[in-house]
Amino acid sequence: MTTSSASPKPQWRSGALFLLIAIGGALIFTTLVLLASGTPVLESYQLILTGWASTPPRLADTVMVAAPLLLCAAGLAVTFSAGLYNLGVEGQIGLGAVFAYGALRAMPGAPPALLWAASFAAGALGGALWALVAALLKRYGRVSEIFAGLGLNFLATGVLMFMIAGPWRKAGSISVVSTDQLPKDVWLPTISALRLAPAAPVLALLALGLVWFLLTRSRWGLSVRATGLNASAAERMGTPVTLRMFQALALCGALAGMAGAIQVLGVYHALIPTVSSGLGLLALLVVLLIGSRSLLALPVVVLFAAFATGSLQLPLVLGADSSIAGVLQDALVLFALIGRGVMSRK
């Protein structure tokens, strides 16, 4: 019997090195950008890291950013597990918002609870259908889901703009800023004096729990992960690879479409051209960090939402642009990927 003289490195040491590369690299890069722009470094970090919880309304705003972002990130964790890079999530949010708003217009006078249910269902349907277009293009048109998703994002923006400027144009307006605002009794109920609609985070957490259960505790999730690891081998073992691809994209699209419904019902209370607010792209960054480990989406989403909300004080306090939070988020993802690459070589 032989024994290896090399002992495996402690796992905590590998994790510490990964965090050092990811967080240290992001902070160094962002600090250099701040110094180059003449922005006070310590004051900027203080505002970004603590501003999100400085007042109850800002804390509520952070939750309302995190909720739709979590829905999108949970959906992308499914497609990532299936080996699919769903870059069309921005368009799926937009089409979900169009369907959600359309459902509200189609049922004037209905009880609010029925309207909310119909709007969320329609949003999920719109997002799922848009994602399935990418699946059809991949399966039958031999178009990569990456390029299909990017193309569909532009098309979704066109549809959104047409609906706002055309059939749903605000009465008496020639601009395309937004549609008419929804009646207040149709808005998602909010906590008094805050813009927090509790239904949004509850829905997002339920969706995350469902995704975690499906991916880790069900045979369906096992076959999705097998498809992502090696589609050819999974197909030879009897896994319906094409069906799983369609299902993964449809589920992701449905969750993104529900995020669009939240934007309409709980944030803007109308349909606007920028209804997605870049949440789809931000969710892609989240998934680049967490991979298919869906539960990790929660802390990362909260962190990114906190950055986004906290940075809003930068123009007011320091006269600096709030987009520095985006630099920090992007740098964190970049150096996390670098750290992952370094760890894979060891």
Write the layout of secondary structure elements.
Layout (H helix, E strand, L loop, with lengths): L10 H27 L3 H10 L5 H26 L7 H18 L5 H29 L4 H21 L33 H19 L1 H11 L1 H6 L4 H28 L10 H12 L6 H14 L3 H4 L6 H22 L1
Q: Could you describe the 3D structure shown?
A:
- With 346 residues, the protein is an all-alpha fold.
- It is built from 14 helices and no strands.
- Helices cover 71% and strands 0% of the residues.
- The radius of gyration is 22 Å and the shape is globular.
- The two termini are 27 Å apart.
Helix content: over 70%
Unreliable spans are 1-6
The sequence of SSEs as H and E is HHHHHHHHHHHHHH
Summed over residues and divided by their number, the pLDDT gives a mean of 88
Strand content: under 5%
Instruction: Please state the structural category.
Output: mainly alpha
Biggest sheet, open or closed, and with what strands and sense?
none
Question: Assembly type of the shown chains?
Answer: single chain
Total number of helices? 14
Secondary structure: number of strands: 0
| Beginning-to-end CA distance, first to last residue | 27 Å
